Amino acid sequence: MIKKGIRRQIVLHYFFVVFLALLLAEVVFLFAMRTYYYDTIYRHIELHADYVSDLTQPLRMPGQSLNANMINNFKIERTLLEVLDEQGNVIINSSGFESKRKIQTSDVAQALTGGTGRWVGKQSGTGQQVMAVSKKLSGISGDEVYILRYVTSLQAVNDRIFYITLLSISVGAAVLTIVLIFSIGLANSIVRPLNDITEVSAQMAKGKFDVRITGNYRHELGELASTLNYMAQEVVHTNQVKDDFISSISHELRTPLTSIKGWSETLNSGGFDPDETKIGMQIISKETDRLIGLVEEILDFSKLQSNEMKLVMGSVDLRELLQEIMLNVWAKAELKKIKLSLDVEERPYLVHGDGNRLKQVFLNIVDNAVKFSHESSSIYITIRKEDQQMAVSIQDTGIGISEEHLHKVRDRFFQVDHQNGGTGLGLAISQQFVERHGGELLMNSVLGQGTTVTVKLPALEEPSGTTDISEAEPAQQPN
User: What EC number(s) has UniProt assigned to this enzyme (predicted)?
Assistant: First the structure.
């Protein structure tokens, strides 16, 4: 007995379908076989009855009547011939025994209407199954009506049909046996890999992501095995990234906290002149801002992941937004003698978006460009309209990114250089913000030559007749 499960379901379904198909084929075959045999007997007797009808001319001549010699000429081997009158009474038969029976079967009634009657049933007295074929004959001037009735036993034919039935059932049983064996093998070929995959999946569920599904499985099972292996690989990678992030963020948090705690204790001890106190308070303020920035970045990412981030959409002028960002990073760029250049025409570049979030996107990109650029280098910012999009490109001549890392830098928690600090979430958050605006973020970089980041956003149609920036719709200023 096959235990419950997919194996049993496959075997039962496959067996049931084949069983129904065989059963239908058996029924149709046996019905066709029975019809063929019965029809063959009927046609044989019918042809003989038609032939006899052509030889009954003597009955149509005066003074002629049925006699035993005629009956012997009309009969068929292994068939009883009865001659009936119009009321169904037996006048004479080929057996030689006198019969007082009155025949009232359906074949007699059909013969009286002028056709050839046929009846299959059990003969009274013997209980044997027989076939009766009757045909009407007319006497002189049509006044005398006779019915020739041939009765033949169907026992031999039924025995032959029964033998064929047993043979077909045996063949069907053999086919079902082969199908059962084949279906069990088929079920095992499906269930065995599933059991292997289930076993490995159970180990993965317990946290053992170093295990892998082995075996050359094909089709959907192969895809399932590959997907689970890929999932385990990604989980291992994610865990490693998470561990790196925790280590990095712990260091990022510890550094400003150490500075804040050290200067707080120092200032609390007293005895400092106003200049030293001012320096200490500035350091505490700067490190506090840094902590707030780290926490806000993590909170933003958490909201994006849970789809809780709400955008306040409005009209935003990218030219004004980028000018403000350049002012924000100017001091940091000045320390490295980096030249910031914004190459745009004096006209509005309008998009529909959240000014604060777009500022966060471009500030992150420009800040990264400054962070990873060489001293005395340049950063070029351009805006151009492409079809129905505004494309903002930030190009630097800094250290660049290798091909190996280029497709990973937008992954969450990923950092090319852990020594530069940060959470590894900046570009991941920026990309999600851009995608939420219906745009795309593209990156092109050559190691040692620099990086170009392009942000494409859906353009907002400018008011008709606008030629001067003072006449354009005011842009929403980011906070």
Answer: 2.7.13.3
